[in-house]
């Protein structure tokens, strides 16, 4: 069985809902990306803190081992630089993803707004047509146009 045809008003509100949903999806996606990146930064900071504390303890226990301290410091600096580069890369990839999401969202919102505008225009034309028909009936002495006349089908 075929579904009943939607009214222009229903089409308008459906399109408006699509626009809102696209915007909410974009906000949700951005929030999730930001959370993932922030969590990664916090994890990196925790790991760096543990390594730095470990290095301090090692030097505190063996203060005369300058060669070991130097080597451990160089290793820690190398890992820190590598981790910073990875975080920067991750941030840039997230920014690219956000750009693609923004384009897709803008496309969805524009399409939904176009559909809403078409539906609203059609609804306004229908309302104007009904208003004009009612005015014509009143002008011909048809009385109250809000009540069906004898020629109305029920």
Structural account:
This protein has 154 residues and is mainly α. The chain has one domain. The chain contains two helices and no strands. The longest helix is centred in the middle third of the chain and has 74 residues, at 66-139. The protein starts with 7 loop residues before the first helix and ends in a 15-residue tail after the last helix.
Note the topology.
Elements: H1 8-61, H2 66-139
Helix pairs in contact: 1-2
- Mean pLDDT equals 86
Q: From N to C, what is the helix and strand string?
A: HH
Please give the radius of gyration in angstroms: 33 Å
Instruction: Quickly count the domains.
Output: 1
Taken from the alpha-carbon principal axes, the silhouette is rod-shaped
Classify the oligomer.
single chain
> Strand count, sense and closure of the main sheet?
none
Total number of strands: 0
Q: Helicity range of the residues? A: over 70%
Termini gap: 23 Å
Strand content: under 5%
Q: Name the structural class.
A: mainly alpha
Poorly predicted runs: none
Count of DSSP-assigned helices: 2
Give descriptors for this structure.
154 residues; mainly alpha
Question: What's this model, at a glance?
Answer:
Helices cover 83% and strands 0% of the residues. By secondary structure, the protein is mainly alpha-helical. Helix 1 runs antiparallel to helix 2 (66-139).
């Amino acid at each position: 069985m075929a579904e009943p045809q939607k009214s222009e008003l229903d089409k308008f509100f459906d399109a408006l809902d699509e626009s809102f949903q696209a915007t909410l999806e974009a906000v949700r996606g951005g929030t999730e990306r930001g959370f993932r990146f922030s969590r990664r930064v916090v994890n990196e900071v925790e790991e760096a803190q543990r390594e730095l504390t470990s290095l301090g303890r090692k030097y505190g226990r063996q203060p005369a081992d300058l060669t070991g301290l130097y080597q451990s410091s160089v290793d820690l600096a190398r890992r820190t630089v590598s981790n910073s580069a990875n975080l920067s890369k991750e941030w840039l990839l997230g920014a690219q993803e956000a750009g693609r999401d923004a384009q897709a969202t803008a496309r969805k919102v524009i399409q939904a707004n176009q559909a809403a505008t078409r539906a609203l225009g059609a609804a306004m034309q229908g309302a104007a047509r009904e208003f004009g028909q009612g005015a014509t009936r009143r002008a011909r002495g048809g009385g109250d146009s809000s009540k069906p006349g004898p020629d109305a089908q029920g």
